[in-house]
Amino acid sequence: MAYKRVLLVKPKGRKGLGFALDLIPIGLEYIAASIENVVEVVHMIDMELEQNSFKYFLELFRPDLVGITMSATDHNEGLRLAKIAKDNDIATVLGGYHPTLAPDELLLHLQVDMVVRGEGEHTMKELVQKGCPKGVLGVSYKEDGKVIHNEDRPAIQDLDLLPFPARHLRRRKYKRMNGKGREADVICTSRGCWGRCSFCCEPVMNKSHQRFRSPENVMKELLEIVSFHNGKPLQILAVDPNFMGDLERINRLCDLLQEHKLDIRFSVMTRVDNIAKHPQLIKKMCDSGFLDYELGIESPKLKDLKNTRKGITLEMQKKAVKILRDNGANVSGTFIIGLPGQTEEEIKQFPVYAKELGLMNAAFGIATPFPGTEFYNNLDKKGLIVEHDWTKYDEMHSVFKLDCISRKRLEELETYCMARFWTLNTLLDRAKVLQKRSGKKTTLKDFLEDIFEKVTFGRNTGRDLRKGEFDNHLKAVLEAIVDAESEEKERKIGMHNVIEMSRFLGILGSQKIQCTFIYKEQPPVSYITKTKSSSSCTVECIKTISGKQDDATISVDIDLNDVINSVNEDLSFNPIGIFIFLVRSARSLKGVWNVFRLCAAVIDFAITFLNEEAKNKLWQNDRSITQ
User: Fold this and answer.
1) Nearest by Cα to 525 from 419, 410, 449
2) What residues does CATH 3.40.50.280 cover in the chain?
3) Is CATH 3.40.50.280 the classification given to domain 5-149?
4) Distance of alpha carbon 96 from alpha carbon 70, whole angstroms
5) Partners of residue 265 on adjacent β-strands
6) How far apart are CA 113 and CA 90, in angstroms?
7) Alpha helix (H) ranges present in 402-484?
8) What are 518's strand-pairing partners?
9) pTM of the entire structure?
């Protein structure tokens, strides 16, 4: 009997370096669009956004089939949801990368009835119409206690024939992804990648073959997305693993975008060789709204690039980053640390290389062998994989043995690399490059929001990793700050030339502000900011030093041990307490006066910030009414 009432579910618990990209479940939306005309009703829920329990939705929607999308880190949570469904006599089916690559393991669990391997649109449509998995291509299931794998379903060749994702079934609005004042959405313009990287799932999922939608079909969906968001400015992430896989197609898409003049800023993932070889196309892409690029840099070591079959060179990396910076684009790079043969000293140089390249954002993921990949198979044959908890396969945990580095130390080195890269100069450099397109300085408000956003991202991605290990990771951060002193001395970026902060500096006056972090037996580390108030207010220098200096006009000591002790407490913001703390830090009447000036500058900034927020809300409300 056919399935009539289908509930599609995305589990709660985004974590790891995929946190930023794992936002909108476009895969589920494609499935929903493919089956909604052949079932009585299809519902879709993202448990990340819901306050009610999963059982509540089962009672509300009364499905006869529950479909759950899963990545490796969703393993436990996905199985928990499947058990709740099964306990309520509802059939279950799992799909996504993880179930495709590990169907046998998942089908060992009693609560899992079926697994859809590979693309799910046609498979799910046939499955719900037949009401049973027998003979449905691309399905694995159990019969009389035996796991049966039906033949693979051929890949969908004409992606233009697929209905657009069922965005109308979203129950909640997704918040923006780094796009100031823009609503967020995602799009998939191609599937697969022709690369053969040994650590990547794509060669397994798509046999190193890439399929494309036509530019006209993509444009049609973009217009639908704009309409869905009522014409508001958008930040759209293209989830294609290799967005520039077909250069002629991208060129034509840029033509269409320039014709329609849509207010969209795009984020894409692509290879450095495509960028390095086609600078003119990159300029056209940037002029068409493609302004955020994520590149797989992977390593500054040619041996690593060769061993992983990346197919790029160090020269290509440098050329690609320069081309993007010259066009005022926001360029991000991902690195893999902990590959076989890498040493601690080599890994410590990864963030240094990232800054030398000119990357404006960087992430350092721990080498993770995903099932079915060449990397996994090679390690598995040697018996080197020692961690089998799939929730740890998040690129922030070490899951296999290395010759030179312990697993614990490798996880600390991931924190070290992030801390050594993300300095104030890195953020200022980013603002300086983006200034090429805007033609104006970044506001202090936007700059601080950018810092807060990155701190929040780091907290969310690494929260599970650092439980019980906060002490060692904090030491790694302090170690990184000290080690970064050498390269940071060479990066001189006038903060006042990049950030609009003349009013703030005018109130603050000439100061030497020293913020010192103290932690147990670790040498103290200080951030020093020197400002000058004259005809033009400037930030003369910003630097980090080991130890402290005695001539600071405002000096603040922060005991990080107190921070650790309170990290799990529900602390509320207490401006009066902070003010008293700063006054107590002053060592003279002049020091107290300097603290007053600092607080006055902060209060003035806060008032300006709140006024801007109120104006923006009023503008948005007026715009909603007119629309």
Assistant:
1) 419
2) 5-149
3) yes
4) 5
5) 235
6) 10
7) 407-421, 424-438, 444-462, 470-483
8) 559
9) 0.89
